[in-house]
Amino acid sequence: MKEFEMKDLGRTKFCLGLQIDHLKNGIFIHQSNYTEKVLKRFYMDKAHPLTSPMVIRSLNIHDGPFRPREDDEEILGPEVPYLSAIGALMYLANNTRPDIAFSVNLLARYSSCPTRHHWNVIKHIFCYLRGITDLGLFYHKDEKAALIGYADAGYLSDPQKAKSQTGYVFTYGNTAISWRSMKQTLTAEENVCG
Questions:
Q1: In tens digits, what is the pLDDT along the chain, a chain of 194 residues?
Q2: For residue 135, with 0-12 CB atoms within 10 Å meaning exposed, 13-18 middle and 19 or more buried, which class applies?
Q3: Global confidence as pTM
Q4: Which of 39, 46, 104, 166 could share a disulfide with 153, CB 3.0–4.6 Å?
Q5: Sheet with strand 18-23: strands edge to edge
């Protein structure tokens, strides 16, 4: 039997880019250092902070982030780090920032042919993050906490491909423990009863 030398470093404070603060009444998990590094990497660390991850003036599919690329719109070249930005934002959205999950999921759909419009929406998310870099998840030590799940779907939210958007979140003690926003794989069909 082999033996390994071990050293007790105490409570975990940092793991895979997640900062873990042990407090009297619970644990706070956040990625404020990572968020600040990402903002600097994309030159958004001095940007004006915004209060919403995405501005939707209407759910019109021909306007805003929902619209497909127009024929005369130029696809961004490799000089614009669209995929790197999506990857960095997904790491945040999947670990400690469910508030940006929908926006990032929506923009990831355009990874193969992003336009200037999509890049501007990514910069909008960076401005939102700039305003609240220290947001995270706080898990109380309350033993009476309940496990609750919520789900929602938007019927035909992508009419070009006849797909709907689905999202869910599970909470324990009013704090998210699992969440996802995704486009459904099944095709939605309208049923007309006469």
A1: 788 898 888 999 999 989 999 999 999 999 999 999 999 999 999 999 999 998 765 455 556 555 666 677 788 888 899 999 999 999 999 999 999 998 898 899 888 888 888 899 999 999 999 999 999 999 998 778 889 999 988 765 555 555 677 889 999 988 999 998 877 776 656 554 54
A2: middle
A3: 0.81
A4: 166
A5: 14-15, 18-23, 26-30, 136-140
Instruction: Report yes or no: 140 and 173 within 8 Å, Cβ to Cβ.
Output: yes
Residue whose entry in the numeric block shows the structure tokens 């019927």: 155
Angle in degrees, 0-180, between the axes of helices 116-131 and 101-108, rounded to the nearest 10: 160
Neighbours of 2 (CB within 10 A): 3
3 state SS of 90: helix
Contact 35, 129 (CB under 8 A): yes
Length of the chain (residues): 194
Query: How far, in Å, CA of 167 to CA of 71, rounded?
Result: 31
Handedness of CA 64, 66, 71, 77 (dihedral sign): positive
Tokens 């990497």, residue?
A: 41
